[in-house]
Automatic annotation (TrEMBL):
UniProt catalytic activity: a long-chain fatty aldehyde + 2 NADPH + O2 + H(+) = a long-chain alkane + formate + 2 NADP(+) + H2O
GO BP annotations, alphabetical order: lipid biosynthetic process
Protein name: aldehyde oxygenase (deformylating)
Main location: endoplasmic reticulum
EC number(s) from the headed UniProt entry: 4.1.99.5
Enzyme class: lyase
One Pfam family cited in the UniProt record for this chain: FA_hydroxylase
Length: 296
């Protein structure tokens, strides 16, 4: 809640006129308790999870296979509409019971680390720098947690649920055991805890991170995807290999970038697989990304 009775009072405190974004934020949040602003994350999460994977789901379900197969990483795998719906319903239920519950009780931690709701709003440069830090922190911590989840106990008790989709789809990005959803939430929160931000940046961080997860689980590798311009970005092909190999996978643990796997040597199976596919393509023109025997 912004502690000003009017826009004039807010501008007097700022010592300048509000920008259009600040004026909009003032109108929206001036009389809304900070706790309710924080709980917006629940609604934002469900809107993004429902809307973002939908175009690719419709493309896979409705478009002719001849149109989508060149871009589908595992073209021989075709899920039914019922399978898509089951994935959505099961994941939505887990998100509601885990992330929703955490949102309701974790507000004191948000206040303690210094997430703010007042004016001024952060600049674009500040927001971009903070988001970069959050991605780097989440990627590094998530890498090690993911590796632990591929140990015998971690996989058998928890992580096997996420790997039920050997050919992932966007709706399966957060499809996981409830314990995994909770555990992987900590790396996502670690960045804002280290570098506190404005609530709007906090919202934006979780929106972008969730869209990124949907992208890497999309099952499609489009040549015109703008994420290909991001340095060290793994992308859908990189993570799809991890799902394709499944339980035996000791490759491609990082959630966003590729450098942790490179530094710690956990991309060797993937690089070997890519080299094998390149030789196969040179030999007989094969082009399907994951239609050869599984490598590790």
């Amino acid at each position: 809640m912004i502690p000003y009775a009017s826009a004039a009072a807010a501008e007097a405190a700022l010592g300048r006129s509000m920008t259009w974004a600040e004026a909009a934020w003032f109108r929206y949040s001036a009389r809304t308790p900070d706790y309710l602003l924080y709980c917006h994350n629940i609604a934002i999460l469900f809107v993004v999870y429902t809307v973002a994977p939908l175009p690719l789901a419709l493309l896979e379900l409705r478009a002719p296979p001849k149109l989508t197969s060149p871009y589908k990483l595992q073209p021989r795998v075709r899920l039914s509409p019922a399978a898509f719906l089951r994935c959505y319903k099961d994941t939505a239920r887990v998100l509601l019971l885990t992330v929703g519950a955490l949102q309701l009780v974790s507000y004191p931690a948000v206040k303690m680390v210094g997430i703010r709701t007042g004016l001024p709003l952060p600049s674009l440069g500040e927001t971009a720098a903070q988001l970069l830090v959050y991605f780097l922190v989440e990627d590094y911590l998530g890498y090690w947690i993911h590796r632990l989840l591929h140990t015998g106990w971690g996989y058998d008790k928890i992580h096997h649920v996420h790997h039920e989709y050997a050919a992932p789809i966007g709706f399966a990005a957060p499809y996981a055991h409830w314990a995994e959803v909770i555990v992987l939430g900590f790396p996502a929160f670690a960045g804002p805890a280290i570098v506190p931000c404005h609530m709007t940046t906090f919202w934006l961080w979780f929106v972008i991170r969730h869209i990124e997860a949907i992208d890497t689980h999309s099952g499609f590798n489009f040549p015109f995807n703008p994420t290909k311009l991001i340095p060290f970005y793994g992308g859908s092909e990189y993570h799809d290999y991890h799902h394709y190999v499944g339980r035996r996978s000791q490759s491609n643990f990082a959630s966003v970038f590729t450098f942790c796997d490179y530094i710690y040597g956990t991309d060797k199976g993937y690089r070997y697989h890519k080299a094998s596919l390149a030789k196969l393509k040179d030999g007989n023109g094969a082009s399907d990304a994951f239609d050869t025997s599984k490598q590790d």
